[in-house]
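Figure caption, in words: inputs first, then the predicted bound structure.
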Amino acid sequence: MTTPVTPSFPSRLPKVGTTIFTVMSALATEHSAINLGQGFPDFPCDRTLINNVNEAMLADRNQYPPMIGVTELRHGISQKIQNLYGHHYDADAEITITAGGTQGILTSILACVSPGDEVIIIEPAYDSYRPAIDLAVGKTIGISLDVKRDAAGQVTSYEIPWDALAKAISEKTRLIIINSPHNPTGMVWEKADLDRLADLLRNTAILVLSDEVYEHMVYDGAQHHSVASHPELAARSFLISSFGKTYHVTGWKVGYVAAPTALTKEFRKVHQFNVFTVNTPMQYGLASYLSNAEHYLNLPAFYQAKRDFFKAGLSKTKFKLLPTPGTYFQCVDYSSLNIPQAKLNEADFCKWLTSEVGVAAIPVSAFYENSTESGVIRFCFAKQEETLTRALQRLQTI
Ligand code: PMP
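Bound structure (4'-deoxy-4'-aminopyridoxal-5'-phosphate present):
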């Protein structure tokens, strides 16, 4: 008998290989490094939330929920958006529960991007956007955030590249993906930025995918400016959010997409044959938890304390700290460290930091298609104070 052979076929995603996230996490384990690379909390979620889910399971809420999501959860989300951003999404026609933000992003893209359509993304960008556009056989038009530097050449901030964005728009543009608060840089969009985007898109048929999974992590008393707070943009946007980030349950993978009826109708056609539904007890548990607004209203203060603690410790190192108005990521410029490794590219610097200093971080270059180097790396501060303290002690030795 001849040996059975697996037939070969052309990859749908030929450029996707092992990501730097996998590489860094493996390296962190190998060297027992403190993992400030991957973005997830190392502390438990609220027991109330777990009890809510347990109660739903014990109440035998374990069969398929409605395709669009559990009614109580959709209504809770509609109420939350109304309270925070002043826009009414109809819970039945305009809100769909998804298997995390990632599925919401993929499904939105598959629902509206046809072969050859152009989708503009702004790099550094979350790594699921490009492959999702590829799967839709769309064409990614990548532009880059403007990188502002001081006189010494160190990065001070990232800004929206308005000129490049205006130039990137063409007859073929179907969709623009925006992300605020932004992973990896922590930058946030202001109201004036939403106005400017609306000006650019007025009289076009261009849709917007607004990735707002960090919506409840905005600091120093500032407000998150959601596309939902901007009627003109809301009318052309898929708004993506995720309970994983907000309630410290990244492993549950439950999120939602809010979008006008016409967009939701197309979204659900794909969703139905993509996941069909999202697990029932988690949805009931989240619905009860969401009814107490304090659970998300307290989040900025909770993470701001972590950010400030981490920043205070980092200020005793030679890293140059970038502003962190949002997210649970702190970026630092390492290019002026007085060590030979300061000349390494970002990925190699992170590998050195992990294996020799014992702290894992993520190179910001990993969020660019062409690995643009800025001498900046990203730490995640969604960690217990004890973890951050140990990491800071190590970082302070550099
Ligand atoms: N968008 C951004 C910008 C993210 O950082 C993440 C999670 N890392 C997601 C979307 C996906 O969220 P989820 O885990 O709910 O799929």
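Residues 94 and 245 are 22 Å apart (CA to CA).
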